[in-house]
Amino acid sequence: MEKYDVAIIGSGLGGLVSAQILSKNGYKVLVLEKNEQFGGALQIFKRAGATLDTGVHYIGGLDKGQNLYQYFKYLGLIDKLSLHQLDKNGFDIITFDKDLQEYPLAQGYENFVEQLASFFPQERNGLQIYIHKIQEICRSVELYTMQKPKLDSFYTPYHLIDTKSYIESIIQDKKLANILVGNNLLYAGVPGKTPLYVHALVTNSYIQSAWRCKDGGNQIANILVRHIRENGGTIIRNKEVASIRLKDNLASTIICADGEEFTATHFISNITPSKTYALLSEEVLRKNVKLKYEQQTRSIAGFTLHAIIKKDSLDYMNYNRYHFKEHNTWVNHAYNAVNWPENMMIYTPYSEKHRVLGAMCVMDEHEVAGWANTKNVAPIITSRGAAYEDWKQQKIDIVLQRLIELYPTIKNNILEVDASTPLTYRDYLNTINGSMYGYSKSIDEPYNAYIPTVSKVSNLHFTGQDINLHGILGVTLSAFLTCMPFVDMDKILNEVRSA
Q1: pTM attached to this predicted model
Q2: Who's near 209: CB < 8 A, 6+ residues apart?
Q3: What is the pLDDT of residues 75-111, one digit of tens each?
């Protein structure tokens, strides 16, 4: 049986970046993916000929010299990606019912302040304080600034400051305070709980620069897969891991659902820790540690609608629109099925051939609890039944009606509609109950956010969105953390900075 230096479970971005780093630095790497398509949230699908993204709607920090640009350059990505920059004067637009004004979140620190100060001139000083604080927080996270971290985490001294309280302490205008967190769907913000560092790390990246992938984010996965194979790595699709055999308290062998086995010296899991521990052959360790992670609070699940429409019925929007029923933007945590959706992220993916209008909103996992035992991803596909399809269609109709109210020209011009529910995300992305962003970050449980990259089994490591921070940038940085025990990180980060 062939033995690998490192076997990686899952080909989400964290697994692929880890495999690229390690294979680039001489390790014999194996990646096993349970699905037909590589990439986790980078996966795409097609409807009516249009390419639809699973989870990559826009990316920040990709201007030359910015952090993700440098990391992607090192990984061999940046020169091969097909990108389109969003509107510099408003990459995100915040809007409200009964308010005709569009409030922009702009690229560039000075531009960000100027665009909002034109609506709230009395808050210019507060906006400048806000921008300075965002930059200060980002400088405190070493990997964010391409420096070697002292700890195995994104530790920051700002983990006990909650976002809502801080912003309201420097911004007197309540509407502006809400606008500044108008895109908190990006991290499932909870008032009084979401740490300021989470808001800062996510928001700062887009203020630096904001981009869309042309015709799908799967290009990131495809490029990484090609590089890993060029480096001598092995990547196998349709290989679901059923268990991990231990020997002398170390992981030794992966057993797949089809019975095939793979051995390695080290292992990295790109699936959530509780599901990873559930794979272990040692029962006491498996049960105790799995239960600990299962009891941690997870971020809310999501629902996404894609409407493929006649191209001339709606212009391409070079921004994302976050629309609310009321001027309170802290609504994503307080799910109310009766008033749903209280907030939608609305966007048009970049495509020269098709026009798609997308809408993403939160959805509580309990909405789909009655169909939790079904599965809709190969090789196991079970019907969710007529009741589920009726429920799903009701939700589609609600969101579609909201979109038609906002964009009347699309009425009677819709070619096809597709929607993803929490069960869709659970099945295709292997998340727990369709959670969008893994474990919740809260000032009440600050250390739950810092999951070590090394598990209770010393040669089994973690990567992915549950480790420190979600999103393209967060997962990329977490993968570099995962690889620290294997490589000379000082050397690698010097190469990242000079790439």
Answers
A1: 0.95
A2: 60, 61, 62, 63, 66, 85, 107
A3: 999 999 999 999 999 999 999 999 999 999 999 999 9
